[in-house]
Each structure stands twice: as C-alpha cells, then as structure tokens.
Amino acid sequence: MVKALAFDLGASSGRAVVGQFDADKLTIVDTHRFPNEPVHVLQHMHWDILRLLHEIKQGLIQTRLKGHADAQSIGIDTWGVDFGLLNTQGELLGNPYHYRDGHTNGVMEQVFQQVPQAEIFQRTGIQFISFNTIYQLVALQRSASSFLAQADSLLLIPELLRYFLTGKRLSEWTIASTTQLCDPTTQNWDTSLLQKLDIPTRLFQSPVSPGTLAGTLLPAISSEVGLPSLQVVAVAEHDTASAVVAVPAASPDFAYLSSGTWSLLGTEISSPILSAQALQANVTNEGGVNQTIRLLKNVTGLWLLQECRRIWKNEGQQFTFEEEKKLTAGAPPFRSFINPDHPMFMSPAHMPHQIQAYCQQTGQPVPQTEGEIFRCIIESLALRYRYVLEMIENLVQKRFSGLHVVGGGSQNTILCQYTANALGRKVWAGPVEATAIGNLLVQYISLGHLENLQQARSLVRRSFPIQTYEPLEVSQWEEAYVRFCQVI
Ligand code: LFR
C-alpha cells in the first residue's frame, strides 16, 4: 500500500486527501477540510494566503493523527492565473489578488492596442479572459505597483504554497500555461511577448514538467507538523490539468467536462491548435501531463447556482439538494435561457437579479421563483455544453460518442441528465473527486508506481463508480437548442 497526500484548493474550500494505492485499487480519504474564501479589503479581493499555509500545516498534522504518517509525498493544486510576488530575500510582497477582483477590467482591450489579439493567440494558444495573469501584470504595471517594481520572482499560487513548504522556487508547466505568457511549443515563457508588454523577464524561470520532484518539506515544517521530510512533487498544479488526468477514458479520443465552479469542456490533443478558427472560438490550449495539450473552453459553471444559493441564504432561504431538485423539476421547461458566459454573470453580484435582467433584456419571460431560476440555469448550462462540444469537435474534426463529466458537478443528477438530453449522447459521470485523484495519480507516476496516463486512467476506472446517463426527450431538447442559439 503506497500513500500520498493531495492538497486541493477550490473556489470556496480546500482539503487534504490521502490516497492509498495497493496496485489494484486506489482509495481516498479526507483528512482535513478548510475554507478558502477570498478576503475583501478596501476596493480589492485577495487570497488569504498565509491562512491557507496554516491550513496546509493543519492538514499535515491531521494526516499524521489520522494514521497516515507513512504518506510518501505531497502535491498541491489550485485554480489558474493568480500569483504572488517575492522580493530578493524570498519574502512575499503584498497579498495576491483573486482573479475575480476588478483591477483587470478593461485591461485586455488596452493590451490589444500594444500587441494584436491574433498575435497573442498565435504565441500562447490561450483563450482570452480578462483575468489572465498577463492582464493582471499589465494592470499592476500601469498602476505603478511598487511591489512589481521590487519583485524578483513570480510564483503562481500552488507554486507559492509549495515554495513555503520547501523553500525552493520552481515554476510548473500546467499552471504556468494559464498565464497566457508561455509558448506551448517550447513550454517556456515567451520573452519577446513579456518584453513587448514591459513585464520584467527576471520574474520567470523555466517551468518543469508536471511530476517533477520539487524538494522535501523544510526541516522547520517537518518538526512543526511532526512528519518526516516528505517528498514534495510539482504535480499537475493547475486543478483542471489534475482533473483531466483522472478522466476514466479507455480510448485516447475522448471529450471531458470538468464540472465545478467552472465547466471546462474539451479534449486532449498532442499539439496546440492555433488556427484562426480556434482564435475565433476563443478556445484554449493549456499544458497537460505527458506532453499533452488540453484543448478546451471555459464555460461559467456551477458558479451560477452557487451564487444564487449564497444570495438566497443571505435572505434567509436555504435548500437541500433534494429540495432544489424538486423545485427545478416542478418549474416549466424551456421558458427562458441565458448565455452562462455573458460578462454580467462573472463577478459576485446579485445573481438571481442578474439572471432576471438578462431574460428581460433578451425579451424572454422573466423567471420569478427559485425553481424557475434553477431550471433556467441548468437547462442553459446543458445547452451551452452542446454548443461548446460541437465547437471543439469542429476544431479537431472528430465526433465523440459521449461526454465524461468529472468533478463535483458530476453529482448533480439533473444537470447530468439534461446534459445527456441536450447532447443526444451518453454522459458518463464520475469520479466526483477528479481533481484530488489526478493530483495523487501524478504523484504515483512521479514515484514510479504508475507508468503513464493510460495506467492512471485504468486505475480510476477500477477504483471509482461511474454512472451512465442515456439521452431522453431528444426532440424537445433539439428544439430548445435552436431557440437557445438564437438567444445567445
Ligand atoms: C478551474 C480553473 C479554470 C481556470 C479558472 C481560473 O478551477 O482553474 O481552469 O480558467 O479556474 O483560474
């Protein structure tokens, strides 16, 4: 039995997950859970980064107390694009911004005046989203940030947390690729793009491949948490890259949806697609494991539901999942649709009001009840998935027989069923814990217990339940899709 420990930091919480691998099966157990909530201070939204380091240490202690002091290694993953700056002494400068902060508003469009959009895509292969690291850095530089002026290096958040544990500054490829500052063919920073934008090149060092051994726990941390000096692996530190590792596909040609706060829908390819059509579709070519590229598109995902729940909770209304299901099923079908990716849904605002405003502005019936709003969101997500899947298929010139849905959203039975209906194809749902599992699998590959991605995915198939959804009511959904496309 080989044990490893994954720290997976998601949109509202983080956790420590121990993997136990006995050659035939992988089982996982949580040893610690903690909040990962942004902190609003003055005009800005920041990571609570030192608290997270504290929670990671608590996770190490709990892992020992719960009988897993024999874990061999650790890996950390989080979402993309956010970073911390270090001075020459290796101290953190300021508090990292959260990507939903407003400081990048309008910056992307200004950058296009300096470097044309098509050139940025040609160089990086990354989709255009206003919060990418490239625009965060330009925003800092335009505001004459003294932190940027003093900075000696930049580490993306999982790299920063790993640095706090090991004392070593090391950049990792999957998370580096999300910055929109790397060349996907050389898997290195695009220095001429950095220079064109006056972003200091001294901040960056060549990324290592996911699975690289990145040091051991610092002696001070080992003694603080009472564990030996464990190996720290630079796993696929971008959470989506980890999730894609854990897609239980048997064939090399498959489509996936990593379903959480974001819905990341795409496929795995061997070299980036940088065509004008790809630029037009605003897809991304992010770095994957074993020299793969994750060709995918971001769809605003469960965020829409999470934000509605947050608002209703503040207003004194809370529903269990079973209640939500009933409310959704009880609302009339196909009344109004939203484009989940409209910018008005991006920042934390009053989501139910935003959805109502969208429906009103597009001349559709305005959903009133919670059930009507849930239904509008879930139908729109499922229809958007079809739109994006077909877009990806056009780019790779393939047709997939169904869609693998992994992550927390694979538990949402209504969303999975509606997705199968909207696609008119099968949906295979699971594993739920894909991100943590992918994090662990890369550690097992790195330590020599698994050979490659194929073996890792076959282990996932043997170890975790996968639920199949068959498409239903296909002709009604076909009609709905036509209307959805008109609305968006
Ligand atoms: C998902 C994710 C997406 C990325 C977004 C912001 O958690 O990592 O892949 O586009 O968050 O970083």
Automatic annotation (TrEMBL):
Keywords: ATP-binding, Disulfide bond, Kinase, Nucleotide-binding, Rhamnose metabolism, Transferase. Gene3D superfamilies: 3.30.420.40. InterPro entries: ATPase_NBD, FGGY_C, FGGY_N, Rhamnulokinase. Transmembrane segments: none annotated. The keyword Transferase applies. Residues 255-445 form the Carbohydrate kinase FGGY C-terminal domain. Residues 5-245 form the Carbohydrate kinase FGGY N-terminal domain. CDD domains: ASKHA_NBD_FGGY_RhaB-like. SUPFAM superfamilies: Actin-like ATPase domain. GO terms for molecular function: kinase activity. Belongs to the FGGY kinase family. PANTHER family: L-RHAMNULOKINASE, SUGAR KINASE. This is L-fuculose kinase. It comes from Dictyobacter formicarum.
